[in-house]
Design a protein that fits this description.
This protein is mainly alpha-helical. It folds into 2 domains: 166 residues, Growth Hormone, Chain: A; 214 residues, MFS general substrate transporter like domains (Growth Hormone, Chain: A). Helix content is 79%, strand content 0%. The protein is globular.
Length: 433
């Protein structure tokens, strides 16, 4: 592809998101991602309101949100191989159509509450397959260099922005529409996403097609064997942990935002600001790193950012007021820019025929650990209080991140030695690049 030929020249200049948006296929993926995300946000709000209207139960209403996390691990493990066994465009379009079908059934008057919750689970099972396949497709569309990193960063920025404006817009939408009518809009967004992906992206063969007998055997062995093959490489395991572990700690202040806002007397406005501070910092950090830093610089700052991003949480030990708390959260969020360099290492470490499966596992693990982190934060805060819990998450999280950074540093040095010498290295387990 033409943009691949330009990659060496681009490596010497600071990255710019406009280069990514010049790629027509990426524009289609980007627009489809925005529409799918809009559909997910609206469906979560509308379904939660619908369940509450039908049952009057706050527990069941909250459960509709929880069901967006729990089934991820099922879809991410049992269905991960779908991303590599079938052509990516087909997988993406079918996933969107399945989501549209599930939401369409939700709009039918008289649908039983158990059916609504089961359909919510089905959406969450499909989601990691869709997201993992889409991320793997980015490497096909943009190559596995800097354009891939910037493309993935743009998709993350859209996701974070949805946390800031999506739920507010969804709430406004429900002031003029019933929940079921709002769900009809969601059906439209999923169908539009499917159409964009079908017409705006090229058909490519399945990544697992045409591989040698060993690869074919691994593909046929089932989801557990496939996941085991992804996790067999020590370097890949460490990189996955670098994606998963920090978010498990970063969600702690968000999970405890309501009781902390009550503690400092911030009110509902303060609670909204506390929920927005971390995404704002994340967006700012990613935009700066993606637009202003060179690719090599982004890789150099990956592990330092990882090691220090949770340190601001230690400030919670002083139970600061609203202003300082917002600053601490935004500062920690900016450290999430470490993922840009990590993306580059991950796509280089995973063999192409396993890329879709690896991305799906990554997505499922990320969502699962965030749910676990929120639950554990609530349990600990019940006994230790909110300030001590958040500060403790900062201290423990920093220690774990520093240990993981040391492991990753050894792995990257070994990978660099392999690239220079062209020989397998026992520390990475790599036999091909």
């Amino acid at each position: 592809m033409a943009h691949d030929e330009a990659a060496p020249a681009e490596e010497a200049a600071p990255g710019g998101y406009t280069r990514v948006l010049r790629v027509p296929e990426f524009r289609a993926v980007f627009a489809a991602h925005t529409l799918s995300l809009l559909g997910v946000v609206v469906s979560e709000i509308a379904l939660s309101v619908l369940v509450y209207d039908l049952t009057g139960s706050p527990l069941l209403s909250a459960l509709t949100f929880a069901l967006g996390f729990l089934p991820y691990v099922v879809g991410g493990t049992l269905l991960a191989g779908v991303a590599d066994r079938f052509p990516a465009r087909r997988v993406l379009v079918v996933c969107d159509l399945l989501c549209a079908g599930c939401v369409a059934v939700m709009t039918i008057p008289g649908t039983h509450i158990a059916v609504l919750l089961a359909l919510r689970c089905a959406l969450a099972v499909v989601s990691p397959v869709f997201q993992g396949t889409r991320m793997a497709t980015l490497a096909d569309v943009l190559g596995d260099g800097d354009l891939f990193v910037l493309g993935r960063s743009l998709l993350r920025i859209v996701s974070q922005s949805a946390l800031l404006v999506g739920y507010g817009c969804g709430g406004l939408l429900l002031t003029v529409l019933t929940p079921r009518h709002a769900l009809v809009i969601t059906v439209g967004t999923f169908l539009s996403s499917a159409l964009l992906l079908r017409l705006g992206t090229r058909r490519r063969p399945a990544r697992a097609a045409g591989r040698d007998g060993a690869d074919a055997g691994a593909q046929a062995a089932g989801p557990v064997a496939g996941a085991r093959r992804v996790l067999a490489d020590r370097r890949t395991r460490v990189l996955l942990l670098l994606f998963w572990v920090p978010p498990m700690f970063t969600v702690v202040p968000e999970a405890l935002a309501a009781p902390y806002a009550d503690r400092i007397g911030a009110g509902s406005t303060g609670l909204g600001l506390l929920m927005c501070a971390l995404p704002v910092g994340t967006i700012a950090g990613e935009l700066f790193a993606g637009a202003r830093l060179r690719p090599a610089t982004r890789e150099r700052v990956t592990l330092p950012l990882l090691s220090f991003m949770l340190l601001p949480y230690l400030g919670y030990a002083l139970a600061p007021g609203l202003g300082w708390t917002l600053f601490l959260l935004a500062l920690s969020g900016a450290g999430s820019a470490y993922t840009l360099g990590l993306d580059q290492w991950f796509v280089a470490a995973v063999p192409e025929e396993l890329r879709g499966r690896a991305m799906t596992l990554n997505t499922a693990g990320l969502m699962t650990v965030q749910g676990v982190g929120m639950a554990l934060a609530g349990v600990v805060a019940q006994f230790a209080g909110v300030p001590a819990t958040v500060a403790g998450a900062g201290a423990l999280g920093t220690l774990v991140c520093v240990l993981l950074a040391a492991q990753a540093r050894r792995g990257e040095r070994a990978a660099d030695a392999y690239r220079k010498n062209g020989r397998p290295n026992s520390e990475t387990g790599l036999t091909t690049m």
